[in-house]
Records
---
Amino acid sequence: MTPRAKPRRISILGSTGSIGVSTLRLLEETGGPDAYEIEALIGGRNVDLLAEQALRWRPAITVLADEAQAGVLRARLSGSGLAWACGEDAVIDAAGRKADWIMAAIVGLAGLRPTWAAAATGAVLALANKESLVGCGRALIARVETHGGKLLPVDSEHNAIFQVFNADHRPQVSRLILTASGGPFRGFTREQLTSVTPEQALRHPNWSMGAKISIDSASLANKGLELIEAAYLFDIPGERIDVVVHPQSVVHSLVEYADGSTLAQLGPPDMRVPIASCLAWPERVAWDAPKLDLAALARLDFAAPDLEAFPMLALARRSLAQGEGMPVVFNAANEVCVAAFLQRKIAFLDIPEYVESAMMRAQLPSISSKTQADHGTSDAVMERALELDGEVRRLVRGLFAHDRRRA
Ligand code: NAD
Ligand code: MG
């Protein structure tokens, strides 16, 4: 283990979630509080875990999004001398504080405003919150660059591609190949998917993740979001991004070059590995990482995805091809549907039905002219994405209500 020579100032947006906890575990394993200064820890609702993290790491500011629990946070931190705050504005303020390295790991488009604030700090932005990228696309990337920062993808597939993507050879990149585990319903027919429950959908075979991304992995919406994410991050059109099912989750993704070489990154299915790559970038950090035992694995399997049983992948691809805000519609409709499925208000196969309806009905503002005029980095781009997101959420809830009345 090689602790860093000098402390780095770090903020974690979504520190109480799956990625946030993995990030703090990795910081423990690479030197702990002696090696890092924590600027901000930001959580949504889990006040107990947030307070515990704050007492251990002593951040300059601790923020809980949920204002209703302000009294609890105050009590937990009383006598500690730690500064804290609650509410959405406090989240955005804390996310925009100067730091060297910021982990953006809030889930859903709820993460957009804080991630957008973090993008203007000039920090290395380790981006897990894929919905923000789907919402704002290249504008978010441009914003980071304009402010002198660097965006690094945390998502295991994109982190893999980032590690083997040679930008000098971009014209010779013929294809990006995203791997997908296939989730808990790999091999299921449409018929079998009609009655699956949230409990079954949450039981991912390889990865331990938050609820929303677990459902997305079961429906392949996650791979759809990742396809859009990859198109924006690597500036490669969707037609040149393929998806292959790889149940072992060992090959995290691949870049195919025109000369016939295909480069891949391999690793155990543990998010601390891509997080470690972002943490040390452009160096590498030694830690007690789980290692691959290829002989024990013995085989790696690959298969084409079943687009008929899992229509979300094709819908995401279509939204990317349509552009002009359609990925925002895909994402917003999916978020509302995932929440409704978790609450048992709709069935698993209703998710693609409602998402497709939303994509057909949504009124898209014309965003292209203005986006180009301001180079896509102004707050207006982000506000437009949030506005469209809100409209689509209302539209889908309206469709739910209409169908309930008819039933
Ligand atoms: P999670 O649900 O476990 O955690 C989400 C975090 O965001 C929590 O800390 C929660 O308190 C916080 N949060 C939620 N709403 C908030 C709000 N309004 N304001 C402030 N904080 C809020 O989710 P996760 O699995 O850690 O995923 C986080 C992001 O990373 C997602 O965008 C997901 O797609 C992406 N990602 C996750 C994984 C994984 O292995 N878990 C892998 C790749 C990408
Ligand atoms: Mg992923």
---
Amino acid sequence: MSIRLRLTAWYTGILFVTLLIFSSAVYGFVHLYTYEELKQRIEQQADKIGFDPSAWDVQLNRSSVSRLEDADLYWQNYTFYNGKLIQSENMAISNLQFDLPSVEKALKADKPVFKRVSVNGNSFLVFEAPVTEQVSRKLVGWLQVGANTRTIEQTLDRLQSILIMGSAATLVIASTLGLFLARKSMKPIGKVTEAAEQIQKGTDLSVRIEYDGPQDEIGQLIGTFNGMLERTESFYKELEDAYAAQRRFVSDASHELRTPLTTIRGNVDLLQKMWTVAPGERADMDEEMIKQISVEAVGDISDEAKRMSRLVNDMLSLARADTGQTFELDPVPLQPLVEEVARRAHFLEKTAEWHVGELSVLNGVYVEGNKDYLQQMLFIFIENAFKYTPEGEVSLDVVLYKGQVGLRISDTGIGMDKDEVPFIFERFYRADQSRGITSGTGLGLSIAKWIIDEHKGSVEVVTRRGEGSTFIVWLPVVFAPPLE
Ligand code: ADP
């Protein structure tokens, strides 16, 4: 049974009980009140007639004068000792008579009572009272005053019908309306189920439930569901991106490793061939030539092995970064660190001039970082600058700006196109003009970027093809040196 049917059933059931109680109360109250009022009127009439048999004749005459007032009341008196029956005029005209008790029965009646009787097919409420002599308390007569209850019964019947019909109509209208409202308020839940089913069947996580109703329980449920979908979608996308990056990394890495391996294998084959043929068969090559070719081949093997080991080291660093491995961060004084890098940069292989700016501004400047990784990062930028600057100059200087320290590495080298910049921090990316001309793995800047991110820093690139490049690494500064 659906929730909306169950809700409607509950609602209708409760309404039914309420209506039943209410209608019974109304009917009971009206019934009681009407009959009580009638009884009062009958008793008043009985009092008016009086309990003195000798005055009953006079009473009859008086009553005929004032009969209009009590037109719907009927009375009759009976005197036991002479068997005389006196009736009100309307009774006599209608030829009615209430049953009279036998003397024995009348003697047993000690107080007045109300009775419901039927005479000639008409219902009456009759007040019956024994009449006694005042002194001896001897039974002398019997007083009966009655009222035709047909009108009251009709009215009560009508009231009963109205209550039953009204309640039934209310129940039908309320349950139909209730079902409609329940269906309307449950409709958004159907949408949630539909969306969930759609996701379960396919992979479309972009589904959202449209809802412009109030922010009630259902509105909140839909909001939460949409939020959950949004999170799942972005999480799924991240996962997909990560998976794609991983696949690209593996394919690029195997490609990069294949090149040096091919060179090494080619050279080894050459050496093997040269040194295994019989001396007579290499008539075209003298000893000197063989030696020269061998040295070149060994040199190539050595270069490629170095390149491979650099590549493997870089890949290892990035693989560690991918596993979420982080390093210890301590307050590091920047001046000695940058000075050491500047000094060691003199020994790098280079064709451009090396300029170092004023580093004294770094005095007392600390960053939350790791000395080794910070140096590695600076060397990546400096080595690149030298690599891509065949002639001209490479310089290092520093700036302090709004709680950040900027380490600026500028060169006057080959520069880059603007549209290449977004990709240079990607793994294995190498701009076309550097591919095959300068040695490199395309991993340096990815590692540098990871180190900068770990230091909660950022990097800025300004470059122009043929004019050079400037990289500024921004790191948050911790000014106060920690207490030892
Ligand atoms: P690579 O080993 O090729 O140097 P990097 O990740 O360090 O790999 O750099 C990615 C690419 O960015 C390089 O191939 C080069 O095209 C470009 N690049 C980096 N630094 C510079 C620079 N100072 N001047 C010009 N191009 C640069």
